[in-house]
Design a protein that fits this description.
Layout lengths: L2 E3 L6 E3 L1 E4 L16 H13 L4 E3 L8 H10 L7 E6 L14 H15 L4 E6 L8 H13 L3 E7 L3 H14 L4 E7 L11 H8 L2 E5 L22 H4 L7 H18 L3 H10 L4 E7 L3 H8 L8 H11 L7 H6 L3 H8 L1
Parallel strand pairs: 3-4, 3-10, 4-5, 5-6, 6-7, 7-8, 8-9, 9-10
Antiparallel strand pairs: 1-2
Length: about 350
């Protein structure tokens, strides 16, 4: 297993992290479907493989994911990094959602109890909250750190401009600063490269990736014919937007590279992410031991420069304004001199 510091911090995490979203049961059986016995198998194997980074959220299976993760980590708590998240609705009242001071304090206390721990290593705000002042959210997170309930903080699913505004405010006021952005990123979803990646690299924010296989699309088990089958996960949980026909063309090349390396499409898709210098850690969520075993092998797979370049070019997102204008108007005379 490979390890890295998360962002500009001393927190060392495995480059493959284990995502526990599938733990528990609930109103979406295509997602929440791993019972206690299955979860124990997965966690034990992840630890055995060297994974020290585990991710969950208070909204996964109504908190069951946190409960199961905390119980099964047990006495190994000091050896692992646990991340959990808050922000989505967890109850019927108006105040049981969002990033207000009231809700963040209540959500943190509830997560600590479910995880059966005194502290959360990485506390992540799961979404934006346009109804709460940014200052209120950031000060509440800072207070949770100062009280020792949280060690580090991060954000998920925020636009780059908002994360930049938050980081500026945190640094100006001496508050605990974001060290992590947990974001959707895959071969068929490279939107973060437009703005978020440059921001994160410049500011020392470590990027962790959720849904690296695009909800399972890049696992290779789906075809044009079975994609809408209600019995598979994508049939009941297909919310990641991308042109499916284009996605299958990307997948065709992934399959070719997989054959070259005697690997699987999932391993190639994960290895491509691990080859990106701006990616700190990739969350792999599994509902079966065989899936986890397959994903773990991605940590050992080294794609050639030619493989990475081919996948980069094939899946490259269209440039957005002003990015294309900036590239088009770069002073090549100066750029050439500086490259010498």
């Amino acid at each position: 297993m490979q390890y890295t510091a998360l962002g500009r911090s001393g927190l060392l995490v495995s480059r493959l992290a284990f995502g526990a979203m599938t733990f528990g049961s609930g109103n979406n059986p295509s997602v929440y479907k791993v019972d206690h016995g299955g979860a124990k198998q997965l966690i034990d194997r992840a630890l055995e493989a060297g994974i020290n980074f585990f991710d969950t959220a208070d909204g996964y299976a109504d908190g069951q994911s946190e409960e199961m993760l905390g119980l099964l980590i047990g006495s190994r708590r000091q050896s692992v990094v646990i991340a959990t998240k808050a922000g989505f609705r967890v109850g019927p009242s108006l105040v049981q959602a969002g990033l207000s001071r009231k809700h963040l304090f209540a959500a943190c206390e509830a997560s600590l109890k479910r995880l059966n721990t005194d502290y959360i290593d990485l506390y992540i705000v799961h979404k934006t909250d346009p109804h709460t002042p940014l200052e209120e959210t950031l000060e509440a997170l800072n207070d949770l750190v100062r009280e020792g309930k949280v060690r580090y903080i991060g954000y998920s699913n925020w636009p780059a401009w908002l994360a930049a505004q938050a980081l500026t405010m945190q640094r100006e006021r001496g508050w605990a600063s974001f060290i992590n952005g947990q974001l959707y990123y895959s071969l068929v979803g490279r939107d973060i490269e437009h703005e978020t990646v440059p921001f994160a690299v410049r500011n020392g924010v470590g990027i962790t990736v959720w849904s690296p296989l695009a909800g399972g699309f890049l696992s290779g088990k789906y075809t044009r014919e079975n994609l809408k089958d209600e019995q598979n996960r994508l049939g009941g949980f297909d919310f990641l937007p991308h042109d499916k026909e284009w996605g299958f063309r990307v997948l065709d090349t992934v399959r070719e590279i997989a054959e070259e390396h005697e690997a699987t499409p999932a391993q190639v898709s994960l290895a491509w992410l691990l080859a990106q210098p701006h990616v700190a850690s990739v969350l792999v969520g599994s509902s079966k031991l065989a899936q986890l075993e397959d994903n773990l092998r991605a940590a050992e797979l080294r794609l050639s420069e030619a493989n990475v370049a081919k996948l980069n070019e094939l899946s490259r997102p269209a440039a957005l304004y002003p990015n294309w204008f900036i590239a088009m108007t770069d002073d090549t005379q100066v750029a050439d001199v500086l490259r010498r």
